[in-house]
Design brief:
Order of helices and strands: HEEHHHHHH
Largest sheet: 2 strands, antiparallel
Radius of gyration: 17 Å
Shape: globular
Number of strands: 2
Strand content: under 5%
Oligomer: single chain
Length: 174
């Protein structure tokens, strides 16, 4: 159990509180905003670096994940949607060939996915739009337009950020 808690703490799901024990991580609006700002930059870098090494097989894998997202969004099957969404991003990270960037993104992104899967505050149209935005990222990778690639990924992350923050904190302006 101790080792499992250490791993959960490493992944950001729980935090140790001195003299109290281990508690589930709670994220404030500012915490989520800070994480998303970092994520947007790291994901943009990852996409730019992935462009340099993208193969036809990589593009096909990304298209498969995006199609899985679209189908899951249409069926409102959220676990499958998020499974494909995370797999898409992990594939992009893998394509960079940079283990340090992959590790940083795992630490920043994976806890967010878990947090938002539990909250389920999005509308079906938002899931469909998200899948479409991932398709735009693939098109940019195929065209190898460096600036466009960064903008597409960053825009996709920022779109999700605005949507999530508004859903979680409706009475507070961004």
């Amino acid at each position: 159990v101790r080792e499992a808690l250490i791993e959960l703490e490493h992944q950001g799901f729980v935090q140790k509180v001195p003299f109290k024990g281990t508690v589930v991580t709670k994220l404030s609006r500012d915490d989520i905003d800070d994480i998303f700002r970092l994520r947007a930059e790291l994901e943009a870098i990852a996409t730019e670096w992935a462009k340099e090494k993208a193969t036809d097989a990589d593009i096909e894998a990304l298209q498969k994940f995006t199609e899985g997202m679209k189908n899951a969004a249409m069926a409102l099957n959220l676990p499958v949607f998020y499974e494909n969404d995370l797999a898409f991003h992990r594939k992009v990270w893998e394509m960079t060939g940079n283990p340090y960037l992959i590790d940083a993104l795992e630490k920043v992104v994976v806890p967010l996915f878990a947090f938002f899967v539990m909250k389920n505050i999005r509308e079906q149209v938002n899931y469909i739009d998200s899948a479409a935005k991932h398709g735009e990222i693939i098109a940019a990778l195929q065209n190898r337009k460096e600036k466009q690639i960064r903008q597409k990924m960053k825009g996709s992350v920022e779109y999700w950020q605005d949507e999530i923050l508004t859903g979680l904190f409706p009475n507070r302006k961004p």
